[in-house]
Amino acid sequence: MKIKGIGASDGYSIAKAYKFAQAEPTVTQKLAANAEDEVMKLKAAMETSRQQLAEIMEKTRLNLDEEHAAIFDAHIQILTDPELIGATFDKIRQENVNGDFAFAEVANTFITMFEAMEDEYLRERAADMKDVTKRVLCNFQGISIQDPTQIQEEVIIVAKDLTPSDTALLDKRFVKGFVTDIG
Description:
Helices cover 55% and strands 8% of the residues. The chain is built from 6 helices and 3 strands, in the order βαααααβαβ. The protein is mainly alpha-helical. Helix 1 packs across helix 5, helix 2 packs across helix 5 and helix 4 runs antiparallel to helix 5 (120-141). Strand 2 (155-159), helix 6 and strand 3 (175-180) form a beta-alpha-beta unit.
């Protein structure tokens, strides 16, 4: 099979294709049996996400550098943003909806706002917000997040998209290149 695309860098690599398919959480609005239980479940998912991001940040610091690791510090800060947290918890309590729905709705509002900004740096923060949102939703729903550090042979990653956290965890000894549909 031959695939055409736009090259992002010079050169080529030959290796086995490795399909990297992250689970996509689906969110539907439901009536919460207990709003405070939803808040607690969301807090737990956010804490799990924070711990995962701290591990990714440390691995990035060791394998790359401080500048790249700072990306994940920004991701952790998203999880402590009082506007995001406050608006999400308010939505759960006031509308008596499930935590993942409330978080997705509020996060998507922020993503839309970032994407509409004129400043390119701020527009790029939408990708960070999407990455964090997906991680929290997966943790909330109990969906396991594919771990690229488990790749132990030379491969070329084939994925719809790679998030900043996915890319940071790719081991250059084994990942010889990647092909994405978007991003």
